[in-house]
Amino acid sequence: MTDPRVEAAARAVKDAMLRQGKSPDAHDLAQAAIKAADAEAWQPIESAPKDGTAVLAKVHDDLFPRIKPNREDLRRWNGCWLVVAHSGVHEDGFDLGWYVAAPVGNGGLTDDWFVGWQPLPPAPVMVGHDE
After folding, report:
1. CA 74 to CA 46: how far, in whole Å?
2. Taking CA 94 as the corner, what is the angle to CA 105 and CA 108, rounded to the nearest 5 degrees?
3. pLDDT digits (tens, 9 = 90+) for 15-61
4. How far apart are CA 81 and CA 70, in angstroms?
5. Which of 32, 48, 54, 73 could form a Cys-Cys staple with 117, CB 3.0–4.6 A?
6. Nearest residue to 98 via CA among 69, 57, 66
């Protein structure tokens, strides 16, 4: 069974293309539906917890060049999914931003980097493993 949101997105794209005099093919419709379903899956980054909780976040597909046009080196981040955390805004109002939840020293990422966020899935349970 197809997700109704995907079907609705495909219909909307097809209608828009037909209004423009274009004939959509199956690939166009599939790509548009996938993109719409993906966008629907992410909660706004502004609603993510900022208490050190790690979350899964998706970087914009076009971080470079749309958001950071002068930073060609950021192209490799386009569309990446990252586990990030935010420790909150300090009492003086300084916002350290999001940091990659790993011991790599990468931080200071701002909300505008991200499409959105999702909670992390539960950790796997090790069956038959003594702790």
Report:
1. 22
2. 25
3. 777 888 877 676 677 777 667 766 678 899 999 999 999 999 999 88
4. 22
5. 48
6. 57
